[in-house]
Amino acid sequence: MGRIASGGNMDTAVIDEVRAFVVANFLFGDTARMPGDAESLLAAGVVDSTGVLELVEFLEDDLGVPVADHETVPANLDSIENLARFVERKRADSR
What we know:
- The protein is mainly alpha-helical.
- About 50% of the residues lie in helices and about 5% in strands.
- It is built from four helices and two strands.
- A two-stranded antiparallel sheet has the order 1-2.
- A hairpin with a 5-residue loop joins β1 and β2.
- α1 packs across α4.
- The model is unreliable at about 1-5 (pLDDT under 50).
């Protein structure tokens, strides 16, 4: 699996999956509106409070990552990089 520098040592496959989900489900395919990987999805108007619930469902159902209520915070869910780091951390914890 590839790694990218912008997120430290993040797996590009996870970044790509999360980015593709956001583009398809919140931007309806409009990649021109996609914020940078480190930018806030909430501040950019891409995701709202309902969208956070959709992100959680995606993480749990599609990526197999359980999300506890106390983990639904911006540090975990507010950017592509935060989401990818959260996924990788949860996967590492389950090993």
